Amino acid sequence: MINHRKIDHIKICLTEDVEAADAGFGRIKLAHRALPEIDYDSIDLSTRFLGHKFRFPLMIEGITGGANQSKDINRDLARVAQKLGIGLGVGSQRAALEDGKLEATYKVRDIAPNIFLVANLGAVQLNYGYGMEECRKAVEMIDADAIALHVNPLQEAIQPEGDKNFSGLSDKINKIAEKLGKPVIVKAVGDGMSYETARKLQVAAIDVGGLGGTHWAKVEGFRGGKQTRRLGETFSGWGIPTVDCIAEISRLGVPTIASGGVRSGLDVAKSIALGADIAGMALPVLRAWKKGGASGVEDYLNCVVTELKVAAFLTGSRRISELDGKIWRVD
Are 61 and 281 in contact (CB under 8 A)? Predict the structure, then answer.
């Protein structure tokens, strides 16, 4: 069942309108400098995140795994991440924990030895028999540098086969983070995270996964019958826009990944100006892969990097950290 669901997710994301309306980036205006007083060619876009150096402050977010076609996708994305010096996450590894034959669909370390690689499990599974052992297995399976525990209550509520017991999860997540021995990232998946939720988490980083990108109410709506489709439509605008998540969560001082509707290097620049450390992208990367394979992804991400560099130049930012706070106004 999990295998078929993952195939459905890929197909739907490639063919249907699954994006929420607005991540909020249009409300943010960066501080333009008519005289940047810097040399464009000397701009350094590298950064460090959770102890790892990134050539650019970007991650390819977890997209897939657990289905035969997922293997080619993950390996192509890993090749690009290795070449560009950016991070990569894999999709939920629950399928491989339940069927070892699927492990190969996630494994990319042999072709991407130097990237920041993130394992992935659903946090709700901590209420369905999973614990420290499964988290360690997920990390070891792909030789990951960290693990993302994704929180997706809306998706699980709409998904006909969803797991809906989210009680007591913050304490369980914190216990995993305390003893795992690898950084734990808590990742929202398209409906965002509030300050009140994030402040309860004692983890290495937060991935805001805000409203504005792939919306899993829509995705699951396309998978089901009339009632599921109606639920998907009803809640297709549910969540906290990405820019608001970044602004709130950055107040905590915890390392932050901006994701959810990040579609350009300008969006990345605005995310960092709001307080994020790096930005993550998934759907546009998957669609670039569909059109042109690994080279299509590389071309797309090189455009994103160029846009980010131009934004840094126009705000007089020699280094990526200098973008922080360079906001002219919020509409």
Answer: yes
Per-residue pLDDT, 1: 60
Confidence of residue 2 (pLDDT cuts 50, 70, 90): low
Domain that holds residue 6: 2-330
Specify the pTM.
0.97
Give me the residues paired with residue 54 across strands.
47
Q: Return the sign of the alpha-carbon dihedral for residues 168, 5, 212, 326.
A: positive
Residue 281: φ, ψ to 5°: -135, 145
DSSP string across 308-326? HHHHHHHTT-SBGGGGTT-
Q: In this model, does residue 4 exceed pLDDT 90?
A: no
Q: Hey, what amino acid is at 171?
A: D
Torsion of CA 258, 194, 329, 263, to 10 degrees: 30
Identity at 266, one-letter amino acid code: L
Number of domains in the chain: 1
Domain of 108, CATH number, reads: 3.20.20.70
Residues listed for the chain: 331
Q: Which two tokens stand for residue 312?
A: 């840094």
3 state SS of 112: coil
Predicted confidence band of residue 110 (pLDDT cuts 50, 70, 90): very high
> In this structure, are strands 256-258 and 117-122 parallel, antiparallel, or unpaired?
unpaired
Sign of the CA dihedral running 173, 178, 181, 187:
positive
Closest CA to 145 of 171, 120, 173: 120
